[in-house]
Amino acid sequence: ATNAVSGALRAAATSPRGCSFSTTSASKAKVAVLGAAGGIGQPLSLLCKLSPEISELSLYDIVGTPGVAADLSHIPTHSSVTGSLPSPVSFPMKGNIGLEETLSGADVVVIPAGVPRKPGMTRDDLFNTNAGIVKTLVEGCAKFCPDAMIAIISNPVNSTVPIAAEVLKKAGKYDPKKLFGVTTLDVCRANTFAANSLGLDPKDIDVTVIGGHAGITILPLFSRVGGAKFSDAELEALTVRTRDEVVAAKAGAGSATLSMAYAGYVFTENLLRAIRGENVVQCAFVESSLTDASFFASPVKIGKNGIEEILPLGDLSPYEKMWFDKMMPELKSQIQKGVAFANA
Ligand code: NAI
Fold first, then answer.
1. Could you read off the pLDDT of 5-36 as tens digits, one per residue?
2. Which one of 79, 124, 136, 139 is most buried, counting C-beta atoms within 10 A?
3. DSSP track, 267-315
């Protein structure tokens, strides 16, 4: 499901006028983007503005959102846009609409707030800054939209998702079926690289990626790609590449933003389709009893009220089993780090 070209992009490709989409089947859904002025937040918000699935888009950041919202509001699609800051400047200008108004009534909250990596940094190096940001924002979700589905992009996902769970538990609002760490970029990368290597169209490939979202905890299951026979060297190269090469290529200017915005949008759109009653299966980092880690990324079936089923892992190839065994201690310790932070 993650592999499907999203509705907004399909609409963009087929719209006869090129800049306006049919709204006849438009859904009513409110999506809040927290960290909306950032490298991921802006293109993610643009894709949301193009989406026929979204009727209300509310943007929040500590800087820049009134301008981003004003800019997006000139795109002739049916959704409304607001941009809020913690201070009394907002778009439209109606006083301090802040986090409360951003979140009230939200069906889905997407969180790309926080600092990205620079070369030489691991995702775990971001912990000190991003843990507090995610904690504060999820406290807002517990207060203002306790029923929303929450999709966390901020790294380190392996720790920020457990932090979010603890924050929600403390507020008495935790529903493990509605909290997700977004690992869709790993799936997008695995699909792209496998398709390139096999000479196929990426839309015909849907690689399952399990584990977590940091370094060796990212484990793409290339052995399941139908008909593919990768050599050991190819398999190793594909696996390592899926764990990221953008940070180095950007040489200090951050990490993936455009491909992450696409991946974050696909994830969000799949949640909205699930809320509308479609059955959706996509990989996500969620509370899980599949392994002895309390959170784990794997394909999950999502319906109206969140996760309906965490699908069984199935057999791993010997190569995948080797990485699985290597990753588990690291994954568990990153989860524990998040839990400890939230309870400190
Ligand atoms: P960025 O620095 O360009 O943007 C982050 C935005 O968050 C900024 O606009 C900033 O003002 C805002 N922000 C900071 N504190 C905030 C707060 N308390 N409330 C609201 N907004 C706040 O960073 P970028 O490149 O957009 O990356 C964002 C996060 O996404 C990073 O943590 C990065 O590591 C992560 N990421 C996750 C991926 C994934 O696959 N899950 C892939 C790529 C990046």
1. 445 454 443 333 433 334 445 578 999 999 99
2. 79
3. HHHHHHHHHTT--EEEEEEEE-SSSSSSEEEEEEEEETTEEEEEPP--P
Residue 37 marked ligand-binding: yes
Q: What is the DSSP string of 119-168?
A: TT--GGGGHHHHHHHHHHHHHHHHHH-TTSEEEE-SS-HHHHHHHHHHHH
Residue 78 is a catalytic residue? no
> Once rounded to an integer, what is the mean pLDDT over residues 283-309?
98
What is the overall mean pLDDT for the chain? 90
Query: Which atom of ligand 1 lies at the shortest distance from residue 181's CA?
Result: 41
pTM: 0.93
Helices within the chain (DSSP H only): 7-14, 41-50, 65-73, 98-103, 127-144, 157-170, 184-198, 232-242, 246-250, 258-275, 318-343
* Residue 283 Cβ < 6 Å to ligand 1: no
Say if ligand 1 is within 6 A of residue 35 CB.
yes
Cis peptide before 92 (omega within 30 of 0): yes
Q: What number does the ligand 1 atom closest to the CA of 257 have?
A: 25
36 labelled binding-site residue: yes
Q: Which of 163, 255, 295 most suits a substitution to test ligand 1, by most atoms within 8 Å of the C-beta?
A: 255
Q: How remote is the CA of residue 314 from the centroid of ligand 1, in Å?
A: 34
Which residue type occupies 165?
A
Residue showing tokens 């983007």: 33
Which token pair is 57? 């888009």
- DSSP, res 67: H
In the chain, the amino acid numbered 271 is L
Please report, for residues 36, 83, 84, 270, the alpha-carbon distance to residue 95 in angstroms, rounded to integers and kept in the order given: 19, 11, 10, 33
Q: How many other C-beta atoms lie within 10 A of the C-beta of residue 106? A: 23
Q: Measured at the alpha carbon of residue 282, what is the angle toward residues 277 and 284, in degrees to the nearest 5?
A: 115
ipTM over 0.95: yes
